[in-house]
Design goal:
By secondary structure, this protein is an alpha/beta fold. The chain contains 9 helices and 8 strands. It has a single domain (about 5-245), classed as Rossmann fold (3-Layer(aba) Sandwich). The protein has helices at about 5-10, 10-25, 40-50, 85-95, 110-115, 130-140, 170, 185-205, 240-245; strands at about 30-35, 55, 100-105, 120-125, 145-150, 155-160, 215-220, 225-230. α3 (about 40-50) packs parallel to α4 (about 85-95). Bound molecules: zinc ion.
Length: about 250
């Protein structure tokens, strides 16, 4: 049940999708993996919208070169605490009603189940494809929704993966990009992170349409956006089994 105070806080969004949807947000547990350029706006907007429990996962501390895009942190935060701990402090100032769990560690095959088993949805806010593939495999195996976004320069892409219904990350991108370090500007991570938060809110409330089976791409330098239909790869080593199971 929502308190009087919560109803006042979320008044403008309850106007749209109703109290029941707001209660669904309150009950939801969402993991944000990566608390950098994407994870900053995702966590801020999910906190503001009233997601009940956030699981924040990142092993790094903020560095000076992060500050052009990682808007959760300021100069006073540099090289002090791990990002999830700092993020929790900031997010609590915005909304003390929500629970924030912090995991200052990297996700590996060995700990992924412990970290993510409880959550209803996983948000991929990472900057490397190795860990993304691991998240994808886990989400496919456990049938958890995965909201993927990736950015480079002024380019961004986003899709929502629903295992058994949509292509997985491996279907869409079977080969990881070779580059380790790539250019990036805060406006791109800002926009894509907000879109990921939007996907989570729609997925949990059931309000509106999600980007399931669709890849939304943005070229912000030339103001071009495209939303293309994407299909599962029938021989995908990660998810093809889930579709076979469904057809039986
Ligand atoms: Zn696949």
């Amino acid at each position: 049940m929502l308190s009087e105070k919560e109803l006042r806080r979320y008044d403008r969004q309850v106007m749209m999708f109703g109290k029941e949807a707001q209660e669904k947000l309150k009950k939801a547990k969402v993991a944000i993996v990566g608390l950098g350029g994407l994870g900053s706006p995702i966590s801020i907007y999910l906190t503001a919208a009233g997601i009940g429990q956030l699981f924040l996962i990142d092993e790094q501390k903020p560095e000076l070169s992060n500050l052009n895009r990682q808007i959760l942190y300021g100069e006073e935060d540099l090289d002090k605490k791990a990002k999830p701990v700092l993020a929790k402090e900031k997010l609590r100032q915005l909304n003390s009603e929500i629970k924030v769990r912090t995991y200052s560690k990297r996700i590996y095959r060995e700990n992924i189940e412990d970290l993510l088993n409880e959550v209803d949805a996983v948000v991929d806010a990472l900057d490397n494809f190795e860990t993304r593939y691991l998240l994808n495999e886990f989400c496919v195996k456990k049938r958890k929704p995965l909201i993927h976004a990736a950015v480079e320069g002024f380019y961004g892409q986003i899709t929502t993966i629903l295992p058994g219904r949509t292509p997985c990350l491996n279907c869409l991108f079977p080969n990881p990009p070779k580059k380790k370090k790539f250019p990036i500007i805060g406006v791109t991570t800002g926009l894509l992170g907000v879109l990921q938060a939007n996907e989570v809110i729609k997925l949990i409330t059931g309000y509106g349409d999600n980007l399931m089976g669709k890849l939304f791409t943005y070229d912000l330098l030339h103001n071009k956006a495209e939303c293309i239909d994407v299909k599962p790869n029938p021989s995908c080593p990660v998810c093809s089994g889930t579709f076979r199971l469904r057809r039986q």
